Amino acid sequence: MRRPLKILITLGALALIPIMVERTGEKVKAYPGASSAHAELERGLDFLMTGKNIPMDFLSAIEKFSQVAPEHGATSLEAEIAEFLSAWCIWADPSSDNKRKEMALSDFQLKYPDSPFLAHALFMRALIESTSIPQTGPDTAISTYKKIVQDYPDSTLADLSRLALAGLHREQVHDLRESARWYGEVVRSGTDTFLLHEIELFHYLQAKMLQEAGDADEARRIYHAILESEKKSAGNWKDRALDRLAELGEKVQDESWGEVQQTSFPMQNHSFSSDKPITLRISSWILEKKGMLEAFTQIGEKYHEHNPDVTIEWISLPYTGYHDWLQTQILSDEIPDIVQIDNGTAVRYGAYQGKLVDISPYLEKPNNYTGVRWAEMFWPQFLIEARDPVKRRNWVVSWASENSAFIYNKDAFRKAGLIKRDNSGNAVRDSSGKEVVDEPETWADLITAFQKLEQSGYYGEVCNFHPDPAPLIWQMPYITKQIYDNLIPKLDVIVPDDSPDVFEIAKCLLDGTLDLRDGEVSELWRLLYEKSEYWVPGSTAMDIRDAFNDFLRGKAATLHWVSTDLADFEDKADFELGVFPFPSLEGTPYFDGLYNETPSLRAFEFSIPRVTESRNTLPAAMDFLMYLTSPEAQRVMVDKGNTIPPIRGIQPSRRLEPFMRAIGRRGTHTTFFNP
After folding, report:
1. Mean pLDDT computed over 653-674
2. 12: domain range?
């Protein structure tokens, strides 16, 4: 969870609007059966209903709430609600200054000292006081937050106040032990308020505050607790905890990194029942890949065997037109029940406007087909990378993954003399008598190979830019992970969790801490430019099919592409194919260390449109996604679709080994920064 105070404001605002009523174009909306006072309350709430190009109208809402008074026939409770909502409007109105906001809340507190809304009013005051810290200092805000914790200890607002207190003692009072104490309070009491990955973050921050305060023993205890809990978690704090323990002089064996379940989760009997037959329509652009259609067809049939009330209908569309089609579908009720989109495009399809179902709560429940908490079944990165970095919610769920690597022409490499030799200079041969290719392992090796290939009549690489520059997009993380790791302390400026987020990076860009002209930052582009000297001419204007053809015709010796298309290349190439991972940047000026597996695998993801609620297909759609990520379905996906499974305990095909050589290797850390 990032930017606690900002998030608290958002959560506070949302928590304080108990009813949302659709605003209409009518000047006076009728509420048949409601008293005149209750109708005015509803009309006031109508002005707080937001929509596309419809902002909240605070002044009109306050005018309506002012009509809800005893002298106008309102009950005492109706009058109290109206006055609280009027104070809330003043507090939420960006045109109101802090003095007016505090006065409105103080008047409400004095008039209604026993109000059930008093905790909310106190919390709103604390938020105002937090924004005034540069002028007044932190003591007033701290006092108000503590009062909320004392008077309403089991409330959600108390958990949010504990988190605010941890941040204030860290950032403003600079009392790291007290900050750690409050983080510990959040960990102990906040399980009903925060998601599991947020609790793990607070646990890590508690340990880090103690470490910085000099309490090494207690910090060690918590770091070990994190290592233990993350054997079954979806967090990303294990490698950080190992790093912090190393700083404290404790070298934990690397086996700790690999202590995750390797055996398959057992399937359990389950059948989804419905009072009428359901047809789930699922759209995807991936069914054109070899084996994918066969895999999905078999999975749909197996699912129907388990659940006779549900039939799966697949909608296959080409990638080049899929997103345009989906943009039109999202605006209508005709959109399929499950759609293939990724985390990066979920916002485009209305996640923040309520168009997509938030899958996060379901991930905390048992999977219907294993009985195991659904999130626990995944390798951690498949939940982390599928999580919205701003809202911290999962609008999508991963059901398969692929990795990218250099797919290359072995015959071209042999012709260029890129073969392994023994100590006597003789060529090393495989069991069939063919020369063993000397695959590049470092950046220098790669550039040397491209130079030799050029001398032998081949271009080093073909790299298409249309419909998008996918090969570059896939290669960038391998580079940035190896050159930007030491930037993390420089960018980690708001919440010291060793994981800079988009807010922190934006702040560093705005205040000049991060300069895109800096040599280290621009190293990414220097390396890519160096490699581009060996591309097939016209790559920047090249379509994906043209790139495939140039590779298959032997014009270019390598293509950086994904594992799920390997079978297609094997079918079409008239030369022997090989695969090698992206090379190490060791020896380049800003090398920080080898990359780890976190950015390596890219997931395929499905989302469920919110309209499934009105169709009554949401339960069936969620049940199918649980089945799709079950061991039974994942074995079909691996065998037929050549995928790398996102869940633990399912082994991918051995032929994909070059795409997975770095999986499980500890290395540098993930950052959101990409220039």
Report:
1. 73
2. 1-131
